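Quick illustration, no need to memorize.
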Amino acid sequence: MRLFEDNFTTIDYESDFKILIIKRFNSKPMTDKIYRETLLKLLEMTLKHLPKGILLDNRELEFPIHPDTQAWSNKEILMPLIQCGVTTGAYVESADFIAQLSVEQTFETKIGEHFKVRFFENYEEAFAWLLVASN
């Protein structure tokens, strides 16, 4: 079920599996402000649907996440996700090296230690792993 869509992101909910699926695309013109707004939308949808896991499809992500935004997302997004019971995330890697590195750096903090995350090159493998890991 589609929950949200804008020029850069879609958020879908797979109710049978209790998984939120976030797909990023067309991210080259994205700004920090827009990136943060989409994360706030993710948090809103998480609080509403209480998924067990999150699948983030970053294959088309070309936006390098600034260190300040990485820290902000840990405090304002990741910590509340963990507090409402989401502790597992599967990430389909971006082809853009810098964008992918910035995503991985987000989880290299104390807060990130409480969130089980795994990176994949393939969407189907990520989804299959998340089904097992989030139950």
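The radius of gyration is 13 Å.
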